[in-house]
Amino acid sequence: MGERRDITLTVNGASVSRDVEVRWTLVDFLRHELELTGTHVGCEHGVCGACTVLIDGRSARSCLMLAVQADGHEVTTVEGLSPAEGLSPLQQAFVDNHGLQCGYCTPGILCTLTEFLETNPDPSEEEIRIALSGNLCRCTGYQGIVDAALAYARSNKGSAE
């Protein structure tokens, strides 16, 4: 057993305190300790984006971050993006625009787009593709994902006016 440390963080709006091994990655902590399995482990090198979560509202690769580094921070996983009554508007846009297939990359893409669309509410297709450049999807070819992000942005623009 390795060195351990007490950490306290907010995960999907709830305060969480645990004694963790200092070598645990955040993705392993989320999946194995908190049983939040929506965050996926892909390459374990920060390349594929499957493990992307939001840390204090900013997207981050949870495979590259130690759980102890999240101490005192707010973590939002894909589970935290969904309202209790169903899908978020962005998730619904994915359903409506065929933005997912196997779904393995989808949680990381949703977290990436959540941050991106908050800072850029009226993006071009090119800007969306650039924002998604750190998320690998082997199933879709990205067009449905881009269409979903554009549809979400258009619907939010209409509701803001």
Structure report:
The protein has 161 residues and is of the alpha+beta class. Helices cover 37% and strands 17% of the residues. It is built from six helices and five strands. It has helices at residues 26-33, 78-81, 89-96, 106-119, 125-131, 143-160, and strands spanning 4-11, 14-21, 52-55, 58-61, 74-76. A five-stranded mixed sheet has the order 2-1-5-3-4. The protein folds into two domains: 4-81, Ubiquitin-like (UB roll) (Roll), CATH 3.10.20; 89-160, DNA polymerase, domain 1 (Orthogonal Bundle).
What are the main properties of this structure?
161 residues; alpha+beta; Ubiquitin-like (UB roll); DNA polymerase, domain 1; 5-stranded mixed sheet; 6 helices; 5 strands
Helix content: 25-40%
Strand content: 15-25%
Give the neighbour order of strands across the main sheet.
2-1-5-3-4
Specify the CATH homologous superfamily of the largest domain.
Beta-grasp domain
Helices and strands, in order, run as EEHEEEHHHHH
In CATH terms, what is the architecture of the largest domain? Roll
In whole angstroms, the N-to-C terminal distance is 57 Å
Total number of beta strands: 5
